[in-house]
Structures are given as structure tokens and as C-alpha cells.
Amino acid sequence: MTLIKKLDKLPPKREEIETLNILRQLSKSSTALGELKGIAKTIPNQAMLINAVVLQEAKDSSEIENIITTQDDLYKALSTSINQPIQIKEVINYRKAIFLGADTINNQGFLRQKDIVELQKTIIENNAGIRNIPGTVLKNDKTGEIVYTPPQEKDEILDLLSNFLDHFNNTDSDISPLINLAILHYQFESIHPFYDGNGRTGRILNILYLILNGLLDIPILYLSSYINKHKSEYYKLLNKVNENNEWENWITYMLKAIEVTSNKTIEKISSIKNLLEETIITAQDKATKIYRKELIELLFEHPYSKIEYVVSKLGVERKAASRYLKKLEEIGLLESQKIGRETIYINTKLIEILKN
Ligand SMILES: Nc1ncnc2c1ncn2[C@@H]1O[C@H](COP(=O)(O)OP(=O)(O)O)[C@@H](O)[C@H]1O
Ligand SMILES: [Mg+2]
User: Fold this and answer.
1) What is the pTM of this model?
2) CA-CA distance, 13 to 309, in Å (whole number)?
3) What would the pLDDT profile of 19-61 be if each residue is shown by its tens digit?
């Protein structure tokens, strides 16, 4: 039986979080993230980018918690009204929570405890709120061994959360925001304020923290795909901070995640931009009569599109909308598929980019 160590308040000791290794990795991560922020701005219609990338993040983050969903199922779920299985619902909810959080940060400029509760509630769809019954422990899901015991008493949880929020909202901290992101993520997971959804809520807080600090304008950083690929390290390093304040490897891990995922997202955005340009040229050339910029943008905002979307975006009749989509299919820009009684039109080339 290990002794339960009390969780320290933030911030940690300066010399533990600004080692040479951390600072070296920091400079690479900052450069990559800066580049991502820049290139994201060059996409003409930001909704196109956010929709695509956020759905991917929702999928990856949920996968860390063993909620596996295929991309196709997700897009179908977004574009049709059929009842969704719980796994798909949770991914769609995660995406909703990212948008909700980004709005809150943009409108309010800080987060309150109730905003975090709202995020978690959006993901999990229940009203349990902050834990108020002791007994929550983190177990190794293979061996069943208890790896970490978070604070048990509600007062202590609230006190730690308020310290967390002070640190989160302080945009004048002299610690680099990327180092702070790693620290805050550790702290949130270790407070583990909810019965469930702590991982996913915490990963949304990461994205919001970047926006709050002006490091991104829109929620497009993809950390969960990296964490997913290096999941056992993620758990192990969180643990090492719990056990012996081993900050260096944890912070370096998170910084590396920021570098790698920024670079991947930059590549993805360039591919999306190229495809957009090609698609516009093809449509202008082969569907001259119906070509409209907004129509093509729609295919990128909704990789799974349908007549209603065209009707509402272009303000045309159903008949015209249907004709447009059919024409775009005819010239090879879309593929149609029947789901129940609905026909959806898929931007398959975009889906390929998003998948990989
Ligand atoms: N040793 C640990 N110390 C602190 N947090 C941990 C540890 N191991 C795992 N975690 C965090 O707990 C999360 C799982 O908690 P949970 O409430 O089930 O969230 P979710 O339902 O979103 O997965 C993991 O994603 C991870 O972020
Ligand atoms: Mg869970």
C-alpha cells in the first residue's frame, strides 16, 4: 500500500520546469506552432478548416479512452438525422464542446469553474458535475492495480481547481505558455475533478489555453493523435510527476507533441489548400454554368454534403441544389451515397486527406 501523496498547488519550482532540455524543445515547438498559426490564416474560409480538423481531434481524443469510431460513421452521423450509437454521440459531443469552449474563451477571455463543468457536461451528457463522493481512483486497466489516487474531498478538489484556474487565466505568467500548458494538463488530470471525462475535458482545455494566449486563432491543434500513438508514455509520465515531481520528461513530451502535431497539421492544411484550388479550377472548367465559389467552399465545410446544405448556403430551390450536386458528381468532384432515404454527396479526396 503506497502512501497517498497530496497534490501540490501550481506553480511548480522554476528550476524543475525550465531545464536546458525543456528550453531546447520549447524553441522547436514554438516555431512549429507559430508557423501553423500563420498558415491557418491563409485558408480563405476558416469554417472549412475548423470543421475538418476538429472532427479529427474529437475522434482521436475519444479513442484514447477506447471510444473507437470510423471517420465515415462520424461524417454520416453529422449529415443525417438517424439515431446515433453512444460512441458516435460522444465524439460529436466532444466536437460540440470544443466549439463551446472556443466561444467562451473568445467572448469572455477567461474560464470559470462553471465553464469547465459545462464542457464536461457537454461531452458526457449528464449532470453529475464535480465529484462529491470519495472513492475515485485511477487504475491500470490491464492489471487493475491502483496507479493514482486523486484528491477525495470536495473542498480540496474545489480549492485545487481554483488554484488551477488562477494559473490558467493568468496570461502574464513569466513561464512560457507552452510549458504552462504541459503543467496545467498534468494538474487538471491529477485533480481529476469529475467521475468521468477528465481526459477529454483536459485535452480541450489545452486547445483553449493556446487560443487564450494568442498562440492560435482557431481550435486546430491536434494533440490527441500524438498522445494516442504514444499513449503508454502519456500515462507513465503523468504518473512520474505524481510520484516524484519528474517534470522534465513530462513537459518535454507535451512540447514534442506540440511540435509534431503542428507540423502534421501544417502539411494537412497545405494539402487542403491545394485540393481546394484544384477543385475550383475543375468546377470552373467543367461545370461553368453552375460554378459559384460558395458552392465549392461548402464541399469543404461539409465533406459529407447534402441538398439542404446547398439550399441554405446558396439560397436556391431544392431542385437547383440537387442539380448542382449531381453535376459536381458527374464531373468527378463528389461521390453520392444513399443513407436511408437521404442522399449524401462525399468529397472523397478531402476525406482521404483528413483520414491520413
Ligand atoms: N497517473 C495519472 N495521473 C493523472 N492523470 C492520469 C493518470 N493516468 C491517466 N490520467 C488521465 O486520466 C484520463 C482518464 O480519465 P477519465 O475521467 O476516464 O477521462 P475520459 O473519460 O475522458 O477518459 C486519461 O486520459 C489521462 O489524461
Ligand atoms: Mg473515462
Assistant:
1) 0.92
2) 53
3) 999 999 999 999 999 999 999 998 878 877 788 778 778 888 8
Nearest CA to ligand 1 atom 14: 199
Sheet holding 342-346, edge to edge: 304-305, 342-346, 335-339
Cα of 135 from ligand 1 centre, angstroms: 15
- Give yes or no for residue 151 CB within 6 A of ligand 1: no
Q: Report residue 278 as a C-alpha cell.
A: 484544384
Domains of the chain: 18-262 (1.10.3290.10), 287-355 (1.10.10.10)
Establish whether residue 128 lines the binding site of ligand 1, counting it when its CB lies within 6 angstroms of any ligand atom: no
Cα-Cα-Cα-Cα dihedral sign, residues 184, 106, 267, 87: positive
Q: Report residue 203 as a C-alpha cell.
A: 485535452
| Cα pseudo-dihedral 213, 217, 220, 222, rounded to 10 | -20
Asked if 25 and 252 count as a contact pair (C-beta separation under 8 A), the reply is: yes
